[in-house]
Amino acid sequence: MLISHRHKFIYLKTRKTAGTSVEIYFEPFCIDPADPFEPVHYHKTVVSSWGVVGHRGMGYEGETWFNHQPAVNIRELTGEAVWNTYFKFCAVRNPFDKVVSAFWYQLDDAAREDLRTRDFSEIR
Predict the structure, then answer these.
(1) What tens digit of pLDDT does each residue of 59-74 get?
(2) pLDDT-based confidence at 98, cuts 50/70/90?
(3) pLDDT at 120
(4) What order of strands is seen across the sheet that includes strand 46-48?
(5) Rounded distance, CA 82 to CA 63, Å?
């Protein structure tokens, strides 16, 4: 999840919708422009006067801000004034593509590699 105070937006990250790529794209708008930016998949929480970049990756227990945070929690943390005035958006994915992505994500590396070498008729 992202919050940009400068551009007044909140990005809500949904599951299996290329959300990390979207986060990485919009992250520079949520941090001090003078800070060096390196696009990384996993990221610790960043909170500043510029905005919030939620924790990305495993082990977010105990974090106030994290990637797949429910909207209701973000609203509680930002307060009604911010929530009601900032533009909120998320990515939506074709349901079939979302299921295929979830299927490949849940496989361990060995199973994923095995299926990559098989004919599609067997995978289907």
Answers:
(1) 888 899 999 999 999 9
(2) confident
(3) 85
(4) 46-48, 51-53, 2-4, 9-11, 87-89
(5) 20
Judge contact between 17 and 92, C-beta under 8 A. Answer: yes
Please name every residue paired with 11 in a beta bridge, in sequence order, or none if there are none.
Answer: 2, 89
Give me the residues paired with residue 4 across strands. Answer: 9, 51
What ranges make up the beta strands (E) of the chain? 2-4, 9-11, 46-48, 51-53, 87-89
Query: Nearest-CA neighbor of 7 among 27, 37, 34, 36?
Result: 27
CB of 37 within 8 A of CB of 119? no
Indicate whether 124 pLDDT > 80. Answer: no
By the 8 A CB rule, do 29 and 47 touch?
A: no
- Spatial CA neighbour of 105 closest among 17, 41, 30: 17
